[in-house]
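User: I'm preparing a small set of examples for a lab meeting where we compare how different chains pack in three dimensions. I only have the primary sequence for this one, and I'd like the structure in token form so I can line it up with the others. Please keep the answer compact; I'll paste it straight into my notes.
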Amino acid sequence: MPKLAANLSLMFQDVRFLDRFAAAATAGFSGVEYLFPYEAPASEIASRLESHRLAQALFNLPPGDWAGGERGTAALPGREDEFMAGMERALEYAAATGCTRLHAMAGNRPPQHERRALMAVYVANLRRAADLAAPYGITVLIEPINTRDMPEYILNTTAKAVEVIKEVGRDNVKLQLDLYHCQIMEGDLARHIRALTGTYAHVQIAGVPDRGEPDRGEVNYAYLLELLDQVGYKDWVGLEYRPAGDTRAGLGWARRWGIAPRSGAR
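Assistant: Understood. Below is the structure token output for the 266-residue chain.
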């Protein structure tokens, strides 16, 4: 059975970030992910995870100026030192929380740089990040993101991501397979799940086209989650969706996957 992780950046929006750990545990989750933890002390996040018996599945490296529209720095020329400083900061949080998956966002295309130059920086940065992470047993992930939600994002398809991973040539660089983005850009999700088995180390889901609950929209996630079982995927499936209303009220679809209110959660 797939292990479902609540995305605390999008779910349980009725409480502040640090209180979402308790909310996720009460709802029945045993794992969580989120975009960025850096506004809270690593020790405080670690305490919440321990108190509520939660595993930390994933989080992202610092993205640059997120409020200003930046979406990562891994492929941006001239930002190499900033990227590596962000990697070191992420490793501190990973050590505190027991997290073994870090997502390095590529960034948006600077108009003054050719794609070849961006890819060269991307590959070099990922090699350095992977080498830094390897002694800690941490995997660095890259994620293709659709051009509807992020029109200028540098990495958009699984095929290109696989090319990058091969060029990086590090065992601890893997694909973050977000089936929401993949459906919008490429479709044929079952084929991708089968063909890319062993390449991805984290999966995310959301309803298409509106990024709501996974049981809404055009994708049959019940079939795809069973397929992940069939191909032997054992890692987390992150629920990176925007609830249509109250998060808890929209979780009925997840009961068949083991998500039910946990008795005694604090």
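A couple of notes for your slides: The longest strand covers residues 55-60. The chain is about 35% helix and 15% strand.

User: Perfect, thanks.
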